[in-house]
Amino acid sequence: MPELMVNSQAVDVSEAGWLEDCRVWNDDIAKAIAAAEGVTLTDEHWDVIREARAYFDEYGLVAEQRVFMKLMKEKFGAERATQQYLYTLFPHGPLKQGNKIAGLPRPKGCS
User: Which of 5, 53, 81, 104 is 20 to 30 A away from residue 18, measured at CA?
Assistant: First the structure.
């Protein structure tokens, strides 16, 4: 099984780089996954990551895209709840890349 080195500790990830156990996730793991994805995390990235994790923690599943966009709009306003905005943060897709960095399970339909 592939591993990601975080603070001198090995963390199990899938062949595609998804965290195998979302319970071990922390900010340092997020930074390591982001670096592997070529993403430099900003406060705006963290807002998206924390919203995605909060939804997962509450409901036990990854938010569907339309549900997540509604949550972002309610919390951060319409300008931060568009596909265009989220793709500027996560160029390989907010659902795929954002959730991957957030340490969440791979959403259905994401390769």
Answer: 81
